[in-house]
Write a structure and sequence with these properties.
Layout (H helix, E strand, L loop, with lengths): L1 E5 L8 H14 L4 E5 L5 H5 L11 H5 L5 H4 L1 E2 L5 E4 L5 H7 L9 H7 L7 E5 L6 H9 L2 E7 L8 H14 L5 E10 L4 H14 L3 E7 L2 H5 L7 H4 L4 H16 L2 H4 L2
Parallel strand pairs: 1-5, 1-6, 2-4, 2-5, 6-7, 7-8
Antiparallel strand pairs: 3-4
The chain binds adenosine-5'-diphosphate (ADP) and magnesium ion (MG).
Length: about 260
């Protein structure tokens, strides 16, 4: 199973929107997909229509040993897409986990306990570089970085890359950046184009060709508890996420790309 952390310590850059819609696009191509909500805000869980009452076994219980993978996984309305939801309890995990042995490897150990059930797993990270994101980076093989196409886009990116580098050096030699996805691109705004050009000049080929436009359909879909890809398959945002998923598949290590 290929494991991808969707990470950026800035909030509101499109992590959750990217995680939900890329996961849906991958499920639509026939892959068995697991999405792990690792943000105490639980936006990925809400966005996939999983109510609070359906979250009795969540990523918090999984990380703290209170439940098994089987118990934590819940179906979504999207065929082949399953979810491990999050609750606010998870905000305590950053502190509680410090007491645990192997505190950085909790998620990895949980995922290792369920081999073969999914083809790919996406981990929707919280907006911080704390122990939750570290757990995601230790468990993952690849990192997908959504970057909002705005003036301070690159600010803070070096911290994220440093964290990825540290996790690679200490715990996870295989970890690498899958790509940077520009989000919320506004084509009527010259600044957006300028920022996109600057980001490409600075980061080069790691930036995906596909750019996710600012599209109100993408922000409406979560309130209906469905991915934008199902809410409005033909809107520019959905089309962009399908293109991103295709590009992403092309970048995966060989066996997975052939799956
Ligand atoms: P993060 O997970 O990084 O905090 P979100 O994916 O939750 O970011 O996005 C932040 C907000 O912006 C949400 O309300 C979301 O619906 C909205 N949003 C995300 N991407 C787009 C987009 N391309 N166009 C319009 N709204 C978007
Ligand atoms: Mg989020």
């Amino acid at each position: 199973m290929i494991r991808i952390a969707v990470a950026n310590q800035k909030g509101g850059v499109g992590k959750t929107t990217t995680a939900i819609n890329v996961a849906t696009a991958l499920a639509a191509t026939g892959w068995r997909v697991l999405l792990i909500d690792l943000d105490p805000q639980g936006n990925a869980s809400t966005g996939l229509g999983v109510s609070q009452s359906e979250r009795s076994c969540s990523s918090y219980e999984l990380l703290t040993g209170g439940c098994t993978m089987d118990e934590a996984v819940t179906a979504t309305r999207v065929p082949r897409l399953e979810l491990i939801p999050a609750t606010v309890d998870l905000s305590g995990a950053e502190i509680e986990l410090i007491e645990y042995e192997q505190r950085t490897h909790r998620l990895e150990q949980a995922l290792d306990s369920a081999p073969g059930r999914w083809d790919i797993c996406l981990i929707d990270c919280p907006p911080s570089l704390g122990l939750l994101t570290i757990n995601a980076l230790v468990a993952a093989r690849l990192v997908l970085v959504p970057l909002q196409t705005e003036f301070f886009a690159l600010e803070g990116l070096s911290q994220l890359l440093q964290t990825v580098e540290r996790v690679r050096a200490r715990f996870n030699p295989e970890l690498s950046i899958l790509g940077v996805a520009l989000t919320m691109f506004d084509r009527r705004n010259n600044l957006s184009s300028q920022v996109a050009d600057d980001v490409r000049a600075c980061l080069g080929k790691v930036v995906f060709d596909t750019v996710i436009p600012r599209n109100v359909r993408l922000s409406e879909a979560p309130s209906y508890g469905i991915p934008a890809l199902i809410y409005d398959l033909r809107c520019p945002g959905s089309e962009a996420y399908m293109a991103l998923a295709r590009e992403l598949i092309g970048r995966l290590p060989a066996p997975a790309a052939a799956a």
